[in-house]
Design goal:
Layout (H helix, E strand, L loop, with lengths): L33 H12 L6 H14 L7 E3 L4 H9 L1 E4 L2 E5 L6 E6 L4 H5 L6 E5 L2 E2 L5 H8 L6 E8 L2 E8 L1 E4 L3 E6 L3 E6 L6 H14 L4 E5 L8 H11 L3 E8 L4 E6 L8 E5 L6 H11 L4 E4 L7 E7 L5 E10 L16 E2 L4 H9 L8 H10 L3
Helix pairs in contact: 6-7, 7-8
Amino acid sequence: MKKVWKFLSYVLVAALASAVTLAVSGVREQAPSKLTELADLIEERFIGEADRTAMEDAAAEAMVDSLGDRWSYYIPADEYEAYKEQMNNAYVGIGITIQLLEDDAGIEVVKVNEGGPAEAAGMLAGDVIIEIAGQDARGMSTSDARELVRGEENTQVAITVLRDGVEIPLSVTRMQVQTIVAEGQLLEGNVGLITITNFDTRCADETIAAIETLLEQGAEALVFDVRNNPGGYKHELVEVQDHLLPEGPLFRSESYTGQVTVDESDADCLEIPMAVLVNGDSYSAAEFFAAALREYDWATVVGTQTCGKGYYQNTVLLSDGSAVGLSMGKYSTPNGVCLADVGGLTPDIIVEVDDDTAWEIYTGTMDPAQDPQIQAAVEVLLGK
């Protein structure tokens, strides 16, 4: 049976075609839209095979792309659950971080989550995955590997790893895994380092917990690392800012209707030396986190220029299970600066890194003692 063409619902326009001819003089039956005409024409007369869902997805994505807004996006129905998992910082999988090796040598396990299914099965960081569920992983993309690794909770996935030249077969039970959003470690000089992966679900709780733990361990200064942080929810950002900053405005939002909202901080704050690390892949909430701390003269910003994302997106679920993340407003710093208008946030101290170092920072394999941006921040905090 042919699927019903529902494309106009994707842009939230109600255009219902009546099946009954109206008898009122001068009133004509509503003509079908151009997209409906084209879809019908293709389905009825195209000599090859046509997939109605694929046409709908392509048309919807093209409509969003036509806006010329790099921040708006379309999510096909079969990708929406993965999108929700990402925003919730939770997924059904085995709890590893991976990266492709050169020359199709396999997929390296960069990190094994503590207490996760992979650790329980005996997988180690540094293992090279060469087979997943009976399929050769050498030459496989990371996205294809993730699709094979993930699946129904409490099911098994067979994975073969290469360790010191020896092939080791493992059977790993897929479980609900929570992504670590924020974690801290105490560096030399009693400087606490807090790495914030994103500002999605649980960011505020985990960040504040990491701050409190480091203070209990004797931290006398803090470095917040929001490099490669794609941003997230405003309420998570504001809660972290409120914990750190004194009374005053934290974040300004203006919706498409012109309504302006200002989030405020109370008087409780944390008064110790701070620095924030940023780079070109610090987006949205990550940029505004750093900008607010600097505008309050609360922290020194170290790293490289951020991207300058100044619009926020609301995700709207559509009738077929797909969704659109549409830019519906803009935001600005406590002082009213829209970072999109100024090309991003320029650090107080610019520290460039080469591509190899940037990759190690991205994958989380760089030792803080060898990280030039972390060390520059530490030097500032210790007054060197």
